[in-house]
Design brief:
two-stranded antiparallel sheet; alpha/beta; single chain; 13% strand
């Protein structure tokens, strides 16, 4: 890859983020953070799922709540589960029921009505994501999405953050920026409500 191509990737990523700011695409993150913080305060939890790189993003964001988001603060763990749980669960479902039913089954078994489901899909058309959203709807679980490529079929099933791109890498870069903004906003709201008491570290 040439230096020129590498530079273009950075420029494209910056251009997409500027578009998100211009069209205020990020505004939906405030609504998401309000609902997720409320869910946690009501003894609910955040369920997150995606495929491939988006599965890694789901695990990354779950870890931000479970462990620690901002290094200068200590706080109690917050309930979040990345549904790409383990290889045994995934391969068992793939073998016995088909991979398209993996997240659906986990939502059905682990999800409760005061939980929140966050799906991450660069296409918005992954069947296992669509099935998970439908399962969540049946359990009255509120659904949010980080989508791409116009949102796909998932857009009609959840309130979503959708960067205006069809390029997987650029969408994922925007998703992780949005994810960090969302997690910080959730944490801020839980601090403000006194649900979280932080110890500042020097």
């Amino acid at each position: 890859m040439s230096i020129k191509k590498i530079k273009k990737i950075f420029e494209d990523s910056i251009r997409l983020k500027k578009k998100i700011l211009k069209y205020k695409t990020y505004y939906v993150l405030e609504e998401m953070s309000i609902e997720i913080a409320k869910s946690i305060q009501d003894d609910g939890k955040l369920l997150i799922c995606g495929n491939g790189g988006s599965a890694a993003d789901a695990q990354h964001l779950a870890a931000e709540l479970l462990i620690r988001l901002r290094p200068k603060y200590n706080r109690k763990s917050l309930p979040a589960i990345a549904l790409s749980l383990d290889s045994s669960t995934m391969t068992a479902c793939g073998n016995d029921y088909g991979f398209n039913n993996l997240y659906k089954r986990l939502v059905e078994s682990l999800g409760r009505s005061n939980d929140i489901l966050l799906v991450i899909s660069t296409s918005g058309n992954s069947i296992n994501i669509i099935n998970a959203l439908k399962a969540a709807k049946r359990k009255n679980i509120k659904c949010f999405g980080f989508l791409g490529s116009g949102g796909g079929k998932a857009a009609s099933l959840c309130k979503s953050f959708i960067p205006s791109s069809t390029v997987t890498g650029r969408i994922q870069e925007s998703h992780i920026t949005a994810g960090h903004a969302l997690m910080e906003s959730i944490e801020d709201k839980l601090i403000k409500s006194k649900y979280l008491i932080l110890d500042k570290l020097n």
